[in-house]
Amino acid sequence: SSQHIIYTIFNSTTNRLIIEFLNISSLQFDFDTIIKAFFLAADHRFSMIDDDLPFKINAGDIPVFDMQGLSYRHLTKVTLSTLRCYMKFTQEGFPVSLSEIHLINCSPVLSRLLTILKPFMKARVSKMLNYHSPDSTSFYEYIDQSLMPVEYGGSVGTMQEIKNEFLKQIESQR
Question: Can you give the pTM of this predicted structure?
Answer without folding.
Answer: 0.81
